[in-house]
Design brief:
Length: about 240
């Protein structure tokens, strides 16, 4: 059962592993070549990603949320777009290194549009990439592509920001049900917690109980609100 649950939670990874197994059975030579190519990128990620995670964690800890909101938030306007463009343009490393960085920016208040700009510039118009492009394809080609690509990035960022909202983004699990309990000795059965957060709290035999549910996203705020509203302070929530 645990294996099936892990497969359901990691459908893409499970599909890739299944594909490799099928290839090993039907076309072993191609399967070995594909595995070797995949392992090359895995080793590359193992070298790069720890550094990115460390830098992202340090930035998250040291840079105040207000700075990110002012520089990259919804109200940062065109200034925020330029900051995002410069961040992506002068970045280093492959595109997958941008994902934890953008996740951190989004968590600290950056807008969807600016996240799109960072990812897009990081992927296709980084300064080191432009230098190589000018060397092999010529400065005129590089400059022309840069102009049209930049215009396209800003247009795409505008439309994606209209179509995708932060509520549509996956939430990080901040805590779980094992950290929530109702002290039955203190509970007076008023039902306030169940009315505020019925997905977690419910009444049984005139006492409040907590369901064994994962608490994440907006649910965290509701549980906190229920704990504060409890007149008997019977809810234990860390």
């Amino acid at each position: 059962m645990k294996i099936l649950e892990k497969i359901k939670k990691n459908k893409l990874l499970s599909a890739v592993i299944f594909t490799y197994i099928v290839l090993l059975i039907t076309m072993p030579d191609k399967a070995i070549a594909a595995i070797n190519n995949s392992m090359y990128y895995v080793f590359e990620m193992l070298l790069i990603m720890p550094v990115i995670f460390i830098l992202t964690s340090l930035t998250e800890a040291w840079v105040p949320k207000e700075v990110i909101i002012n520089g990259f938030g919804e109200k940062s306007g065109f200034k925020g777009n330029i900051f995002a463009f410069l961040l992506g343009s002068f970045s280093a490393g492959p595109i997958y290194a941008a994902f934890p960085v953008c996740r951190m920016l989004l968590k600290k208040g950056a807008s969807i549009a600016n996240i799109v700009i960072v990812l897009s510039t990081w992927a296709v118009i980084k300064v080191p990439m432009l230098a190589n492009e000018a060397k092999f394809l010529g400065p005129k080609f590089m400059a022309t592509r840069w102009v049209f690509t930049t215009i396209s990035i800003f247009i795409m960022a505008y439309f994606i920001a209209k179509a995708v909202k932060k509520e549509d983004m996956p939430e990080e699990e901040e805590t779980n049900q094992s950290e929530v309990s109702v002290n039955q000795d203190y509970c007076i059965g008023c039902g306030v917690c169940a009315s505020i957060c019925p997905k977690i709290f419910y009444m049984e035999d005139k006492k409040a109980l907590a369901r064994n549910e994962v608490i994440a996203g907006p649910m965290v705020e509701k549980v906190n609100k229920a704990a504060k509203a409890c007149p008997a302070n019977a809810i234990n929530y860390a």
